[in-house]
Amino acid sequence: MGRLTTHVLDTAKGQPAQGITIDIFHVAAGHREHVGEAVTNAEGRCDAPLLEGEAFTPGEYELVFHAGDYLRVQGVEAEEPRFLDVIPLRFGVADADQHYHVPLLLSPYGYSTYRGS
User: I want to staple 76 with a disulfide (CB 3.0 to 4.6 A). Which of 66, 71, 104, 110 is the partner?
Assistant: First the structure.
């Protein structure tokens, strides 16, 4: 059974990023449909897959990480507007029977992602 998962690591602190809200969207014909929300736990992961089973289909998806809120709580001082606040990651799912793991490596001035396992 396929599923979509994520985790967030704070690379500036070298630790998992707890408390980041993630909005989940399915994108079709240029329209974004909000299909869920999750919050990272103490391990920087979500307590359950973001999508799985019949809710996880081939197509385009977007994860929107509310990183600015996390950075404020961590006491990271920055000019407003912050360089990084809301981080959208759009990606394609060709085979919804597979596991798509889309992590975010975060610091106050940069981020990276990849398809993990």
Answer: 71
- What pLDDT does 30 receive? 86
Q: Provide the CA 15 distance to its chain's centre, in angstroms.
A: 16
Cα gap 89→24, rounded to integer Å: 10
Residue 90 annotated as part of some ligand binding site: no
Q: Domain tally for the chain?
A: 1
The annotation status of 99 as a binding-site residue, yes or no, is no
Each residue of 26-83: pLDDT tens digit?
Answer: 999 989 999 999 999 999 999 999 999 999 999 999 999 999 999 999 999 888 899 9
Ligand-binding site membership of 100 (annotated) = no
Q: Which domain holds residue 55?
A: 3-113
